Amino acid sequence: MLDALVNGFKRLWEVSDDVSPQRYRALGRLLSSLMIVVSVAPLLVLSWINYNQYQASMAREIEVPLRDVVQRTRTALEVLLGERLSTVSLISEAYSFDKLASDGDLAKIFHAMRGEFDGFVDLGLINEEGRQVAYVGPYELKNVDYSDQTWWREVQVHRKVVSDILSGARGTPHLVLAVGHLGEGGRSWVLKATIETRQLDRLLATVGQSGETDIFLVNREGILQTASANFGALFKKCPLELPQASWNITAGRVSAPNGARFAAAYASVPDTNLMLVAVKPEAEFMRPLSALQTDILLVLATGVVLIFVMTVVPMKLLMKRLQASDERRVAVFAQMEHTQKLSSIGRLAAGVAHEVNNPLAIINEKSGLAMDYLNAAGDFPRKERIVALIGSIGQAVDRARGITHRLLGFSRRMEANMQQMQLAEVIEETMSFVERDAQRRGVELAASLDRGLPEVTSDRGQLQQVFLNLVGNAVQATAEGGRVEVTLKGLDGDFAEVSVADTGCGMSREVVSHIFEPFYTTKKENGHGLGLFITYGIVRRLGGEIAVESEEGKGTTFRVAIPYVKPEKQA
Amino acid sequence: MTKEPIKILLVDDEVQFVDTLKDRLYLRGFEAAVAYSGEEGLQKVKKNPPDVIVLDLRMPGIDGFEVLRAVKKTNPDVQVIILTGHGGDAEEASAFRMGAYSFLRKPMDIDDLLGCIRLAYRDRVEKPYVAAAMAEGGDFDTAREVMREKDLLKDA
User: Smallest CA–CA separation between B143 and chain A, in Å?
Assistant: First the structure.
């Protein structure tokens, strides 16, 4: 592809005389493709940039509200859990183990606590072995052993613990708030309260849920801690691959294993193992983008089509004109070359003819003298034979003289005898000379002469010879039943045109290119090949032009342009 | 064989041609002198002016045109017939302008040349007689015209 372009470029600088249609087609194709590439490429790049920019700003626009939701929700969550944890902590500080271990006192405290905060389900005191020694709540959980629970192990280290969501022994999801206490005398115990997850659900629903945003909690293991609109119910494994969350809110794109893409923002909730996640399906906010995509594609397609049409069509036109002008140039050059060639051939022929005349004259005189002596001498053996021989020398000389003299134009008058005349009359007169021949050959001889033309000042005899040659040739070239038409009309400018058209055998391109050269003949038996050479010479001498068109099998047309008045310079 | 009274000078550098031509003229009763160059031709004209000169155009040294010009200057009555193998339209035109009587091309027919020589001689010799006869008869206009034709050739 690139090579083809480079080669094409190289070819652009080559000036060739080749006027074949393929060359112009190739050139047109090359220029068109260059122009199209140059115009379409920036358009494509621009569209691509535009699309990407829009996509980026769209993503920013979607991330900001997601971050915001996560921020707000986390704050609310912190407040909710923090308040309740503080309360439990406060109670553990305010009362002794013995006081709390008494069921009545614990119930009193629990009721007071419930009065302050929603969501507490129960309250229990657990001794250092992990056994719940006192309990207030709707379930029968006294003496349950919690020593195998995760939160129990954690509270030994961290003192205050918020557990993951548990279903635990009771079967409903709940959250454990546990506060450890190192009592007097080295006895340690843990005060444990549970809150319903309904509290969390409500908080997420009121603060977080807005529009298509899906907000939920997951623990470190990726287990859903609240229900998610997109990923299922509580305790299901969240399919999203979320990197470890930090306190800072992270936003980005994530994809579910089923290929659905989401914009997501997430952050850890402090003092817990929980991570707050807000997601929004990409399809939701990408809808305007796809509309934009359609618009861009439409504009792009229209643009490309327009560029294509506006490049290819004018280029075709341009190439057509270029080709026409090149063809004209080539034709003019060919014509000039042809004229020059004919004139040098003419000079050469004339030079040879001149040189031949002198030896020819010697032969003529010698043989003439020999003949004179023979005539004077008496009879001797084989005299007649010798007379005949010398006679044929004379005949050969005559023949050669005929050629050289015709070649040099000696059979005509020297000075052009200029006079005013009506071309129509001259043509008619000339045609009358050939009429009989035409009739004999069964060729129709027609004339279409404009008699309104101005008079021509030229050499009548020479013009007549021109017309005679052309019409005579035309009649000879035409088979029986054919037609020769002579037309006279005015041309633009100072010329009259005489054309002689026949329906004869026509000539090949090769023949046409040599037709005005001396000694070029297609008449096998008679004809010396000088007729058109002489005709050409006369027309040029009279300041005119002669041209020929021919098609094999269709016929030939000679056109002679004759100036009304011969221009001065052409002597 | 009757002797013709016409004095002829042949000027041509083609020796073969001019000698043979001289012989043929002799056989036909014409006495012709021969010069093989322009210089020689002019000398012979000076020494013994001929009635008619048959002159080639292209010769080494003094060419036919120079000879023609010189002869028409010194001996305007001498008729000059150009006989050349090289004459084109332009040469013919200028030869006539310079006063040549006729312009023939090689190779020519001997009889054409003889006819031309006879005509030239008759014009040279007879015109004054014709004019004189006209004048005697009182037709001065015609006489003047005849003479003027001759002068015209001379002046040209």
Answer: 29
Whether the CB-CB separation of B12 and B56 falls below 8 Å is answered with yes
Q: Which residue of B has its CA nearest to A407?
A: B88
Query: What backbone torsions phi and psi does residue B44 show, to the nearest 5 degrees?
Result: -65, -35
pLDDT at B156: 37
Length of chain B: 156
- The structural domains of chain A, with segments of one domain joined by +, span 343-407, 418-563
Residues of B in contact with A414 (CB under 8 A): 89, 92-93
* pLDDT tens string B4-47: 688 999 999 999 999 999 999 999 989 899 999 999 999 999 99
CA–centroid distance for A206 within its chain? 57
d(CA A52, CA A45): 11
Q: Is the pLDDT of residue A17 over 80?
A: no
**Residue B107 to chain A, least CA–CA distance (Å):** 4
Check whether A52 has a pLDDT greater than 80: yes
More confident site: A562 or A570: A562
Query: What architecture is the A343-407 domain classified under in CATH?
Result: Orthogonal Bundle (1.10)
Residue type, A428: E
Write down all domains in chain B, each with its CATH number in brackets.
8-125 (3.40.50.2300)
Instruction: Say if residue B121 is exposed, middle or buried (CB neighbours under 10 Å; 0-12, 13-18, 19+).
Output: buried
Torsion of CA A120, A126, A130, A135, to 10 degrees: -60
Measured CB to CB, residues of chain A less than 8 Å from chain B are 350, 354-358, 360-366, 368-369, 372-373, 376, 397, 401, 405, 408-410, 414-415
E-strand ranges in A282-386 read none
- Predicted model pTM: 0.49
Which CATH number fits the domain A418-563, given the four candidates 3.40.50.720, 3.30.565.10, 3.20.20.140, 3.40.109.10? 3.30.565.10
Looking at A408-494, list the stretches that DSSP marks H as alpha helix, in order from N- to C-terminal side.
Answer: 423-441, 460-477
Q: How far is A401 from chain B (nearest CA, A)?
A: 7
List, for chain B, all residue ranges whose pLDDT scores fall below the cut of 50: 1, 151-156
